[in-house]
Amino acid sequence: MPDTLPSLSTDQVAAFVELARAGSLRAAAEALHLTEQGVRNRLVALEARLGADLYHKQRGPRRRSPLTRQGELFLAHAIAFLDRARQLRQLFAGTTGPSEVRVAATQYLTLYVMIDAVRAFHRAYPSIRVRLSTRTERDIEDALLRDPDLAFGVAAPYEAGADLDYRHLFSLDWGLIAPPAHPLLRKRPLSLADLVGVPLIVFEQGSTGRQHVLDAFRGLGLTPRVDMEATTTGVVVKMVEAGLGVSVVPLMPNGAVTRGVKVGARSLAGQIRPIHSGILTRRGEKPGEAAEAFIRFLHPGGRRDGKRGPPG
Fold it and tell me: Which CATH code is given to the segment(s) 99-171+276-298?
């Protein structure tokens, strides 16, 4: 006799996933254009059919997540359930309109890789539209676990999350950037020890780039003089151009980072761990065909329009 399967509806599961993403019943109700009671009713029915308490009912101390431990365990399966439902719907959808792929990337990769890649991809695949959003590494990882509509992220995660899979795309070496007349640009050879005592502009706390740089200094027993912090490489470069200090940033082989800006650059390859950038997806989940087409396009040499992919 076959096992009895729980009768789950996509509306119920979608309400649960939206609660996890939005963080509260009120926010979930607004996103789904329902009343709070309507969302609550769907969740109650879902819990009854699964035989598990999925979210905290009572108000109490502020929690990072509204989900119970059972809810956290169910979340990845719920996201996969909705993704499979979308695939089934698209199976008979025909070609009434373009496919859409939602992608999130870090600010650095958006500015120096993704803008050109998306533009070229739209020319090569006019039937697939990429919706690109820019977020921090941490926000991308969180969004992938909370938002089932996000196909994948493009980032440089400092540590691989247990719930995410990582596919490597390319690595970037580091370099010193300084005002054109700065003496460090003329020093041969140049080492991290030469930067000690010089006003240094670094990335914000919690960023992968900052961690790479500071780890390299600490590994040599050095303490850099951190004078300023910035969120994006573009802002860092402009601060250096203004004479506010020097910085250590990942450099694109094509010179895009310093192009059009009055700064000089020197390679520090081999002295700081390279930035490894790649594709982040939910663990065990295979992206749809449209998303896979864009992922293949992002790989070095993966473009079909005669242009090279991102740097290898």
Answer: 3.40.190.10
